[in-house]
């Protein structure tokens, strides 16, 4: 393996500072409620709103600004997201009356969470596609109270009109113009204007992701969905311009977003670096300089595809693109990714918007233990059991022996009350 370009690493001090900043925001919201929300909206987003909930009139006004084409696009993307969420829901089944021993009947029911908050990022760009990605599966799951929130466009006090339409179209019951770590704290603990929810889902920058991590327990969360990441495995048949575009697409999301290329040939790695350089130059000329490539771009030449698989599994990226002549030779060996994009035709950005899989995905190696948001994110699998008198009498001695073995006399007695 040869490292051609190395990404900067976040230090323990960076992480400590982030934890402290966010903990302070959460404490302030818990102590001062809406006053703290207003203070942070003014400081970070340049606005103060008296009413945090968005009114029906504001939503109608957003519809009046959206073009026919934009509305059609939202509907088409939503159709694919909903169809896939329904197919996934249908693949889940309940278990009823499973009998591991005579007279014992076990089962599980699939129950939606009662309420959720869907966080739609809005700091740098109005990510209205995220509204579709979160609210649509929550609806399919059957969540009764779906709240959506997003920071208002800087200095305006209004959520971007496309985000508002997407939230409404997807089926949000309540919408609030609040963002950042303070919004997560508000929906976790409640304020004067905000009734808390049971679960908060959605992506966000490092402050939002850290706030979800710190509020977990008070509320459920999907997982850590922070600044975007893409890892691309490519061989000589891949087009360097396409690879550069795919890496830079994710790097435009955030100063902390990451793009990682694993190339099987050094000449390919060099051509991609050149192509990235050209593209960055032209973006700079066009006055667009939000790319994180310089800090967080990484390029490595691997000695074999087996090594590429090992590195990808260890890195556990949010998005994994396999741009190989024969991608199927490694697909079965890839284990840690939020979403996989197979072959050069399958651009990661298609999944960002419209193919139908969800774009809210685990980052910072969380794909080692979870996939992305899906209809199941909003569903609880809750077990139940019932027993006949005979089965109860039969299992009681086993349970009381085990309970006494643990030193739990009360448990043993509760079991023995069923002896007959
Ligand atoms: N992992 C995923 O599934 C996924 C999907 C989509 C987007 N994303 C990520 O979402 C993020 C969107 O970030 P964004 O910033 O545009 O929007 P955002 O809504 O996540 O964050 C904006 C908020 O951050 C807060 N903030 C800004 N500076 C702050 C500071 N110095 N201290 C405390 N709080 C501060 C403000 O309250 C602001 O409202 C990007 O990182 C993008 O990569 C991830
Ligand atoms: N790439 C993001 C997930 O990391 C999702 C997104 C929204 N809009 C554009 N892209
Ligand atoms: Zn994206």
From TrEMBL:
Q: Which Pfam families match?
A: Histidinol_dh
UniProt keyword annotation of Amino-acid biosynthesis present: yes
Catalyzed reaction equations: L-histidinol + 2 NAD(+) + H2O = L-histidine + 2 NADH + 3 H(+)
Q: Which residues bind NAD(+)?
A: 119, 182, 205
Where, if anywhere, are coiled coils annotated?
49-87
The cofactors it requires, by name, are: Zn(2+)
| PROSITE patterns linked | HISOL_DEHYDROGENASE
Q: Where is Zn(2+) annotated to bind?
A: 250, 253, 352, 411
Choose any GO biological process term that the UniProt entry carries and state it: L-histidine biosynthetic process
Which class of enzymes does this protein belong to?
oxidoreductase
Q: How is the cofactor bound?
A: Binds 1 zinc ion per subunit.
Under the heading Gene3D superfamilies, the entry gives: 1.20.5.1300, Nitrogenase molybdenum iron protein domain
Highest taxon, organism lineage? Bacteria
Q: Which SUPFAM superfamilies match?
A: ALDH-like (SSF53720)
| Gene Ontology molecular functions | histidinol dehydrogenase activity; NAD binding; zinc ion binding
Q: Which UniProt keywords apply?
A: Amino-acid biosynthesis, Coiled coil, Histidine biosynthesis, Metal-binding, NAD, Oxidoreductase, Zinc
Q: GO cellular-component terms in the record?
A: cytosol
Identify the pathway.
Amino-acid biosynthesis; L-histidine biosynthesis; L-histidine from 5-phospho-alpha-D-ribose 1-diphosphate: step 9/9
Residues binding substrate are 228, 250, 253, 319, 352, 406, 411
Active site per the UniProt annotation: 318-319
Question: What Enzyme Commission number does this protein have?
Answer: 1.1.1.23
What family does the entry list? Belongs to the histidinol dehydrogenase family.
What role does this protein play?
A: Catalyzes the sequential NAD-dependent oxidations of L-histidinol to L-histidinaldehyde and then to L-histidine.
What is the name of the protein in this document? Histidinol dehydrogenase
Q: Which gene encodes it?
A: hisD
């Amino acid at each position: 393996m040869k490292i051609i370009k190395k990404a900067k690493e976040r230090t323990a001090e960076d992480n400590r500072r982030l934890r402290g900043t966010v903990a302070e925001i959460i404490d302030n919201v818990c102590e001062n409620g809406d006053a703290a929300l207003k203070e942070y909206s003014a400081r970070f987003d340049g606005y103060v709103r008296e009413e945090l909930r968005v009114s029906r009139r504001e939503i109608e006004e957003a519809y009046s600004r959206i073009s026919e084409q934009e509305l059609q696009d939202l509907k088409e993307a939503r159709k694919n997201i909903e169809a896939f969420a329904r197919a996934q829901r249908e693949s889940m089944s309940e278990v009823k009356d499973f009998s591991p021993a005579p007279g014992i009947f076990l089962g599980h029911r699939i129950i939606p969470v009662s309420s959720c908050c869907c966080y739609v990022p809005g700091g740098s760009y109005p990510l209205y596609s995220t509204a579709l990605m979160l609210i649509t599966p929550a609806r399919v799951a059957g969540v009764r109270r779906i709240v959506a929130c997003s920071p208002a466009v800087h200095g305006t006090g209004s959520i971007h009109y496309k985000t508002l339409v997407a939230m409404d179209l997807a089926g949000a019951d309540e919408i609030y113009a609040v963002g950042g770590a303070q919004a997560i704290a508000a929906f976790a603990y409640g304020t004067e204007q905000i009734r808390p929810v049971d679960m908060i889902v959605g992506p966000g920058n490092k402050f939002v992701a850290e706030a979800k991590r710190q509020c977990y327990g008070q509320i459920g969360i999907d997982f850590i969905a922070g600044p975007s990441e893409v890892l691309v495995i490519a061989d000589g048949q891949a087009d360097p311009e396409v690879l550069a575009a795919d890496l830079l697409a994710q790097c435009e999301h955030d100063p902390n977003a990451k793009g990682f290329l694993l190339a099987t040939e050094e000449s390919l790695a060099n051509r991609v670096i050149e192509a990235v350089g050209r593209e960055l130059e032209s973006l700079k000329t066009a006055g667009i300089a939000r790319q994180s490539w310089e800090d967080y771009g990484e390029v490595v030449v691997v000695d074999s595809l087996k090594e590429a698989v090992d590195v990808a599994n260890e890195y556990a990226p949010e998005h994994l693109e396999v741009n190989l002549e024969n991608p199927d030779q490694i697909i079965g060996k890839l284990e840690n990714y939020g979403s996989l994009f197979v072959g050069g035709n399958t651009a990661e950005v298609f999944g960002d918007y419209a193919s139908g899989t969800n774009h809210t995905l685990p980052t910072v190696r969380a794909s080692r233990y979870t996939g992305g948001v899906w209809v199941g994110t909003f569903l609880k699998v809750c077990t139940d059991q019932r027993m006949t008198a005979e089965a109860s009498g039969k299992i009681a001695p086993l349970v009381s022996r085990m309970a006494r073995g643990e030193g739990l006399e009360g448990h043993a007695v509760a079991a023995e009350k069923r002896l007959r």
